[in-house]
Amino acid sequence: MADPGTDFGRKPFEARPFQVMAKPNGPRCNLNCTYCYYLEKEALYPATKSFRMDEAVLERFIRDYIAGQDRLGGSDIEFTWQGGEPTLLGLDFFRRAVALEEKHRPAGKTIRNSLQTNGTLLDADWIGFLKEHGFLVGLSLDGPQALHDRYRIDRREQPSFDRVMRALALLRDNQVEFNVLTVVHRHNARQPRAVYRFLKEAGVTFIQFIPAVERVRDVAPAGAAPPARGEIAAMVTPWSVLPEDYGDFLCQVFDEWISRDVGRTFVQLFDVQVGLWAGAPAQLCWFAETCGQCLALEHNGDLYACDHYVDPEYRIGNIMHAPIAELAGSAVQARFGQDKLDTLPRCCRQCEYRFACNGGCPKNRFVPTPDGGAGLNYFCASHRQFFAHAAPYLKAMAALIHRGRSAADIMEVVRHQQLPAARAGVGRNDPCPCGSGKKFKKCCGNAPSPRAALVSNRSSD
Ligand code: SF4
Ligand code: SF4
Ligand code: SF4
C-alpha cells in the first residue's frame, strides 16, 4: 500500500475524491436541540444578519463543484444540502439550485441531491418538489416520542416529535426516498431494541446512528492513569452517550439486525463494517485510515475541513477566491486528513481491530490511552465491545461475500444457531462451519464466541 504522504506528492491531491456538505442557511434552525453542535457557529459571523447563501455564492458553488466532480470521472454528481435547517430557505431557493445544476450539468452526467432536515417544515409542496427531482431526504428522528422529545425541542421548548412523524408519513406515503438519522444520546442508548423496532415499524429501511458526545473538560492530563467509569461521565455533557451504553446499544441492535434484517434494513454502521471485514475500503470516514474528503461549506463560501471542524483554524479558504476542487485538494486539507493517521495512538496501531476502526473520528479522541498517552477515542470501549460481539458474524458474512453469496445468508445460520452450535464441536484445524473453506482457527475460531442466545431479555429494553 502506498504511503499516503508520498502519494500526495506524486499525483495532484486535488484529483482525489471529495464531497461537500453545503449549509446554504448556515447554522440557522427553527429547532434548538440540546445536543446541537452547530447552532453556536453563528458566533463565527457576528456581523451577519442573514445567513442566506446569495445567488453569486450559490452559482459559484454549483458550477465549480460540478467541474471538480466531473474531473474525477464517474457518471453521478451528488450535492448534499444541510444546516442548520435548509428548508427555512423556502422552496424557491432549491428550485433555483436545481435550475443552476441543470445549467452547469455536463452532457452524460446525472446530478443527484440529498437534503438533511428536521422535517418540521415539510408539506405537500415540499414533498412534490423532492419527489419530482429525486432528492434523497435524511430525516432526524431519535426514536419513540419520549426519547425523541427528550432533546429535540424548538426555541419555545416545545417538542418536535409529532411534526417529524408527519413528515415521515408524507415521505413514506409519497415514495420519496428517505433515510433516518438517529442521534444516540444518554437516554435512547439505554433502549436499543425499542428504538430500532420503532424505526422499523415506522417504515424506515435505512438508518444512520450517530453517537452524541461533547467533551466538557479533561478528566486527567496526558500521562495520567486511564479514567475510571465515573470519571468518563464527568468528562462529557449530561446528554452525551456513555461508552458502555453505546457498546450495548450497538450489540443489541446488531443482534436484532443479524437475526432478520440483513439486506432488508440498511443500518449504515453495520453494513460499513461488513464491507470492512470483507476487505473493502471504509465507506464511512470514522473508520477510514485517513479522512478529510468531506468538507463543509458555509453560506458565504467559506470552506472548512469537516462539518465537525467548522472553526477558524480549519477554514481552508473561500470558494469565491479559489475553485472548490483546488481548496479541497490543498496541502492544508491533505494535512488535516493525514493527521488522523499520524496521531493514531500506539494502542490503536497494535489493536486487533485497527483495520475496522482506525482509531475512530479524531473529534472524539480525547481520552487517555492505557499507557498514559493522549488521544484515545472516547468510544474505544464501545467499539471493542461491538467488534468482540459481532466478529464471528462479520467474519462469516465476509466469507459468504467472498464465495459470491449474499451476506444476508447469515440469517439462515443465525436462525438455526448453526454457527454457535457448530463451534462447540469443531477442532481448531477443522474446516470452519461458516463455510469459508479456511481452518476454524484461522477463521471464526479466531474470535470470541457469540452469545449463546442472540436475543437477550434485558430488562432495560
Ligand atoms: S435540527 Fe439539527 S441543526 Fe437544528 S438544532 Fe437540531 S440538531 Fe441543530
Ligand atoms: S478499538 Fe480502540 S484501540 Fe482499537 S483501533 Fe479502535 S479506538 Fe483504537
Ligand atoms: S474528522 Fe471525523 S467526521 Fe470529519 S472527516 Fe474525519 S473522521 Fe470524518
Describe this structure in words.
The structure is a single chain. The chain is an alpha/beta fold. The protein is 37% helix and 12% strand. It is built from 17 helices and twelve strands. It has helices at 4-10, 55-71, 91-104, 124-132, 145-149, 161-173, 192-201, 229-235, 243-260, 268-277, 324-328, 331-342, 346-349, 354-357, 380-402, 410-415, 418-424; strands at residues 19-22, 76-81, 110-117, 136-140, 178-184, 206-211, 266-267, 294-297, 302-304, 315-318, 365-367, 376-377. Strands 7-6-5-4-3-2-1-8-9-10 form a ten-stranded mixed β-sheet. Strands 11-12 form a two-stranded antiparallel sheet. A hairpin with a 4-residue loop joins strand 8 (294-297) and strand 9 (302-304). Helix 2 (55-71) crosses helix 3 and helix 10 (268-277) crosses helix 15. Residues 1-13 and 448-461 have low confidence and may be disordered. Bound molecules: iron/sulfur cluster (SF4) (3 copies).
